[in-house]
Fold this protein.
Amino acid sequence: MMKGAAVLVLGPLFVFNVTFDGFFPAFASEAEKGKKLYEEKKCGLCHRVAGKGGKMGPELTDEGEKRDRDWLTTFLKNPKGVVPGAKMMPVKGSEEEITLLVDYLLSLKK
Ligand code: HEC
């Protein structure tokens, strides 16, 4: 009974989400676009979000609670300028891509 109700409620939501993302990428939120870039740029090779990803870099699961927009933007462009001796390479990408990545990182909260 409860299970059936959950499928009824969640089913259409799920379908809506997939359709929305797949057919209207222009309407995806900034954070969702940033998430795609995060995947394209393979940030997950070194970083974990909610348990998924590599271990070379720090976990980013609650990055949005730890850092602000300025810090993240400066760090992504030039990690060594913010964290002396940083091992991460500067992120290659346009100003817009960096902004979208930061939008995604800021959305990460526990
Ligand atoms: C080759 C491994 C590697 C890759 C790939 C990588 N990082 Fe990192 N990242 C690190 C390491 C290591 C640190 C810790 C600081 C340092 O030593 O540079 C770090 C630190 C960070 C931090 C700061 C965390 C904090 O609050 O202190 C952010 C944000 C971040 N990375 C985002 C990204 C994003 C976004 C990408 C993809 C565009 C990415 N990283 C790709 C290794 C990596």
Observations:
- The pocket of heme C is lined by residues 38, 41-43, 45-47, 56-58, 63, 66-67, 72, 75-76, 79, 83, 86-88, 91, 101, 105 (CB under 6 Å).
